[in-house]
Q: What sequence folds into this?
DNA sequence: TAATGTGAAACCGTTCACAGCG
DNA sequence: CGCTGTGAACGGTTTCACATTA
């Protein structure tokens, strides 16, 4: 199946598989079947087998998957097997939380720079990172940073994105609302907490009075 | 078209439409066409028209949509036209950020309670909410709270979810990793920042050395 | 006339059933 | 024999083209 395009939905699931594999590994497990992994992740076994099949199949028939090998393969596919240096722009509530969030290291991300507009925040040190003025975003060019994290108010999102792109960033995680235009080769992932909340009540049973 | 099932993907887009409509409204605009709204949201015009058609069509042919009316309809469909009281469990980095996040009020959410395990945090007051001990989750039953927000370490997620469900919660926003089992009628929305980051490098052009 | 609303076609992803293999 | 890997059927979503209507 090497010649088929891999569905985006498959790519969306791979990190979940990886997380569970890392957990199984930490529990001292060696092997897992598609059924076992499925229970952990919360999807169907055939979905897992199909997803893996896009990359050629990693299992042993009659046995299952070798956890360590599979985890390594997942990381390679997702390109998480190297350190991905990231720069954060915006030190508001959300920006600070992201900087303090330790869950990213496990997947190879390292936030090596933080930028702010507000002069009062520039110079402060948080989680080992010294906050710089936004005008310094251009200096990222020489720092091996290709991932940008945007957590600024909506009005300046496009501007910040353009600055990041100009500094060589080609992947963006955007916590701010608002659609931005970027070159086709640049990937933007939007995390929009309010939008996720906003579709919850639709699915909830009517709250009786 | 009232008798067709509405696609989940449509429901996922409605809040985005709503946000843009509210913004247009704040700019003093009265009407918008599917093309105009499409540009703002970043989707195709026919997608928007199709989405609206599931609910019967809100536009005037040859003119477009009345922004205020449409926004009101969106809110009604999403059930955001009433106050949704929510309870937060877990006052770590992420929990605090969510509590401080002001973007939820606009959509009718009000975080009226916060719970923590750690006795040192119990009693502190943040953003107008006094932190209570997790054992008090059961008291939610009488407080008109139907939305639970989980931001606790992975080991205790299921336990916290069960407590919330026992207290009458029937919609959960979960920031913690790990699959949880809940009754079918309960909706769980998972926001998993690390998983969103983890699929970014796959889509990024190769970082040359 | 300019924009909506909508069947039908095309596309994509999921599910199934079972062949293939260790 | 058990579990993986996969072509084919299925179902849901997007796209299209155009009839419709203020």
A:
């Amino acid at each position: 199946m090497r010649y088929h395009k891999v569905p985006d939905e498959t790519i969306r699931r791979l990190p979940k598989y990886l997380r569970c594999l890392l957990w199984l590994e930490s529990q001292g497990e060696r092997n897992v079947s598609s059924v076992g992994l499925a229970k952990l992740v919360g999807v169907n076994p055939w979905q897992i087998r199909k997803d893996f099949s896009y990359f050629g199949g990693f299992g042993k028939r009659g046995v299952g998957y070798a956890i360590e090998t599979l985890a390594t393969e997942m990381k390679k596919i997702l390109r998480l097997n190297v350190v991905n240096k990231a720069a954060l722009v915006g030190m508001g509530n959300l920006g600070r939380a992201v900087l303090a969030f330790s869950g990213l290291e496990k997947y190879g991300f390292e936030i090596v720079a933080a930028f702010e507009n507000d002069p009062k925040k520039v110079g402060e040190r948080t989680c080992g990172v010294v906050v710089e003025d936004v005008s310094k975003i251009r200096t990222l060019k020489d720092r091996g940073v290709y991932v940008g994290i945007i957590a600024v108010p909506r009005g300046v999102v496009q501007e910040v994105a353009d600055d990041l792109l100009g500094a060589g960033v080609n992947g963006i995680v955007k916590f701010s609302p608002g659609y931005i235009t970027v070159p086709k080769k640049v990937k933007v992932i939007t995390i929009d907490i309010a939008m996720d909340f906003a579709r919850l009540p639709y699915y909830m049973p009517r709250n009786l009075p």
